Amino acid sequence: MRKSPPPALSLEQRRAALEKAKESRRDRAEVKRLIFLGELNIFDAITDPRDSIRRMKVIDLLSALPGVGKARATLIMERRNISSSRRIGGLGQLQLKALGRELAVSKVDPTRGNLIVISGPGGVGKSTITNQLREDPRFWISVSATTRQPRPGEREGVDYFFYSHTRFQELIDSGEFLEWAEFAGNRYGTPRTPVAQWRTLGKHVILEIEIAGARQVRQSEAGATLIFIAPPSWDELVRRLASRGTDSPERRAARLALAEQEMAAAAEFDAILVNEKVELLISELVSLATA
Ligand code: 5GP
User: What is the pLDDT of residues 195-218, one digit of tens each?
Assistant: First the structure.
């Protein structure tokens, strides 16, 4: 039987495909550059959920490491029984673990890392907490996807993956999110694959998400630890939100109403930690998270 030729692409489709290819090349070049400069951990790239990176060859990524180069990268791949044509998205769990050992990614006994969810009302200090945990090699802080616009200084792939509504919906439909929710008119979601991969590598994974997302994790991941961060008092939270300054009175009222709802969910969590002194809170959090 004769095969029919593939359907010809319209000019518009060809343009879109070229644009996408260009974007992919740009993403890959940027990831390699950051790895070379030591600004990005190679496992952040290996667990990057973007298609452009998942289609990249493992060997190209390893070769970008300073002091490794193509020859050593080939050797590492051979020693770990990974085909030189393997793409990042195709790495199996055992191969990932083997690479983790090879590149000494984790000081933790790499059995399997815990999953920890941190939630709490806006203004309670969640980002200060996660920023401190980021410095601790036992933890990996999940990078969420969102449809909201980047704020000044926020970086793609570091603070969030900034997606269009269409792309976000595609990822929901294909089951790529561990959880997702709407918050203040935008969508936010946790990419599933990097969470699983980092846990395989032995890191304790932290999700800093709002309450509806925390509830979904409770449903789907029985072993997760859900931690609620509470302010020392309601008055203190009001004071902290007010000191953010730039909000209009309406916006502030809306934030307070939302915070009230969020506070009401505290009892659903495994633990409530009061953010009175941040150092104290972190040490309590670390012992819960690594238990
Ligand atoms: P912001 O826009 O200020 O960065 O975040 C707004 C809210 O979205 C915060 O409460 C934050 O915890 C939450 N959030 C961030 N990422 C995620 C996510 O992946 N899933 C869910 N459910 N909430 C998220």
Answer: 998 998 889 999 999 999 999 999
Q: Quick check: 225 and 268 in contact, CB under 8 A?
A: no
User: Is 243 a member of any domain?
Assistant: yes
Pocket perturbation via mutation, ligand 1, pick of 143, 151, 182, 183 by most ligand atoms within 8 A of CB: 183
Report CA-CA distances (Å) from 201 to 92, 111, 145, 154.
12, 8, 22, 27
Q: Give CA–CA dist 47/53, Å, rounded.
A: 9
- Show the tokens assigned to 182: 């709407």
- Which has more pLDDT, 40 or 108? 40
User: What is the pTM (predicted TM-score) of this model?
Assistant: 0.80
Distance separating alpha carbons of residues 48 and 193, to the nearest angstrom: 9
pLDDT in tens, 132-162: 999 998 999 999 999 999 999 998 888 999 9
Ligand 1 centroid to residue 128 C-alpha, Å: 14
Contacts of 264 (CB under 8 A, 6+ apart): none
Question: Which CATH number belongs to the domain containing residue 140 in this structure?
Answer: 3.40.50.300
Nearest CA to ligand 1 atom 20: 189
| Residues having CB within 6 Å of any atom of ligand 1 | 144, 148, 179-181, 183, 188-190, 208-210, 212-213
Same domain for 194 and 95: no
Q: What is the pLDDT of residues 174-190, one digit of tens each?
A: 999 999 999 989 999 99
Q: Name the residue type at position 245.
A: G
Structural domain harbouring 66: 12-105
259 within 8 A of 237, measured Cβ to Cβ: yes
